[in-house]
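[Automated response] Your request has been received and processed.

Submitted sequence:
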Amino acid sequence: MKYALLALSMGAAVTKNMVSRAGKAAFGSGRGMLRANMATAALGLVVFGVAGLNFSFFSADILLLAALYGLLTLLSQTLHIIAVRTGPVSVCSLIYASGFLIPAIFSTIAYGEPFSLGRGLGVALLLFSIVLVSAPSASSHGKIWLLPAFGAMAATGGVGVLQKLFRAAHPEAGMNEFLFAAFGAMLLISLALYPAFRESSERVRGAPLMTFVLAAAMVTVNKLNLYLSGALPGAVFFPCINGGNMALTAVAAAIVFREKLRPSQIAGVIGAAAAIVLIAVL
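Generated structure:
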């Protein structure tokens, strides 16, 4: 059952990546991105609120952790949308997915989860693969999308650390309450920032539908990953979920968007897939 949920989470993550690129016009303005975040937060509040809340569970430390989670979730989604506007979806998703290194290493240091030589080699190979896919070509003009791509990687890594911290402190209870507070913080931050951005004059057909699909995928990913981060070892869960996301997104982007990668980028994607196997299996 755990691995079926893992597959469902990967499918939702790939959907989020593809919609982020397909809806780049809909999310192209600052307000467009904030609307996507507000829709995600509002849907999360409904889903986790309907599931029932135990308000006695809330405390100052839980609310602080949830607020940080909401902020990092907002940053990761926003920066990823910015990156895939001009950067290759497959490469941006590889960089984004590599954020799992942060909670995987944190799990080893903080909780003593095993980190074998094979996993160490996998991490080294993954880092080298990231260099391959992000290195500029001789004819490239500008790699500004790398900045938000690596920013999204850091933010999603921070989300993974917070997932691990929460599940270590509360292995069985409080997931709905925690996510309700996190998405509430995400909504409040988005509302506070909204007046500071301008509205795009362009009207995009299908924008409400794309916003809803993006929000539904994001809520699904967060709900499943918070559960799975406690149900599976961090050194297994984080590489599998992010490696599957990366590999499936690369295939989907090649089919849907006809993305053509340089030989070094293809080698980087293959190397990253091999690295995931080393980390997850050895």
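Summary generated for your ticket: The two ends are 22 Å apart (CA to CA). The chain is about 75% helix and 0% strand.
If you did not submit this request, please reply to this message.
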